[in-house]
Recover the amino acids of this structure.
């Protein structure tokens, strides 16, 4: 399970790095949420943009069955590529927001 512990560390570092950047608009807080016991990791944007309440999941990553599941990426960053660059094997990354059929063409794991 050494790789699982390494994957947790990489995912947490990536999300903490992303959370350092505050949006240029509105009074938006960037909130990283880590549940290492269940291996769920998210970054939320919440606050006010003018009169509009913002509560939005920007990134959602789960660790399941030894793989890193990128469930949602609402950023402009290529998080899967950043995970590979940080040391996670491409075949251990699953783009959960792609259909199971389309994952075979992604260059990453299929699940």
């Amino acid at each position: 399970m050494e790789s699982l512990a390494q994957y947790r560390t990489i995912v947490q570092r990536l999300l903490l790095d992303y959370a350092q950047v505050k949006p240029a608009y509105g009074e938006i807080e960037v909130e990283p949420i880590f549940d290492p016991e269940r291996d769920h990791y998210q970054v939320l944007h919440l606050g006010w943009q003018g009169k509009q309440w913002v509560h939005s999941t920007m990134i959602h990553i789960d660790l399941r069955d030894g793989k890193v599941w990128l469930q949602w990426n609402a950023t402009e960053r290529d998080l899967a590529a950043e995970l590979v660059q940080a040391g996670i094997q491409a075949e251990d990354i699953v783009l959960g927001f792609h259909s199971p059929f389309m994952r075979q063409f992604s260059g990453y794991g299929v699940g």
About this structure: The first strand starts at residue 27 and ends at 35.
